[in-house]
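job 3f2a | input accepted
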Amino acid sequence: MPLPPLEHITYGPVRSRRLGVSLGVNLLPPGGKVCNMNCAYCQYGWTRGAARYRGQGTGWPTAQAVETAVSERLLRAAERNEMIDKLTVAGHGEPTLHPEFDDVTARLCAVRDRIAPRLPIAILSNSTTAGWPEVRRGLERYDERYMKLDAGDPITYARVNGAAGPGSSVEQVIDALRALPPITIQAMFVTDANGEIDNSTEGAVEDWLRALECVGAGRVHIYTLDRAPALSSLRPVSARRLREIAGHVRRAGMIAEVFAKKK
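job 3f2a | predicted structure (263 res):
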């Protein structure tokens, strides 16, 4: 069963397979997923109706509220000598859809610089908004950018990630990612018991590798399902196949790390 949406701005710290001990920051309205994609593997379930669009509806936390919540949480962590490896903007949807994303990011950086100057700030994004000027300005402020790219061809992209909003075709996403400062590509590989979705086939991987080369990705995180997905028929890809895909990435001159399903 998919996870329930988050209720607060900060959450965790979460022990992440890829990010270590990560204090999460949720920029989305509480109680409901907001995302402009509809990924079959999403741990928060399907995206519903108007929740697909930027600034839609009410309940978005203000930039000041985010600054206050993160400041209080970092101060509490410092008082307790709590170990945190990263401050990670993610949440139950796409964080760059926040209508004040650049301002929020600037405030997060200021809070970090004041309270925990050695703490890296990271973001997990689905990459569809990377071409928007105001989002790009925000993304450039982060120490680490983990940008989604699960497929390199339009058909596989649509099957895995669902239809996104205007201006976010896979070709446009690739062009936008190419223009960003250094990024880590995060790629979820899945297959489907009904044979309808599979981005781990040789053909799909070849198209994805070409996209990686176009983007100029220096580092790639390769992983598979570890939580209940929106589409119940999805299945994880084997650790052996993930290692094979990573081998292709390394031969293309990029750093690849594999995060297989936990046993």
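job 3f2a | The chain has seven helices and ten strands.
job 3f2a | closed
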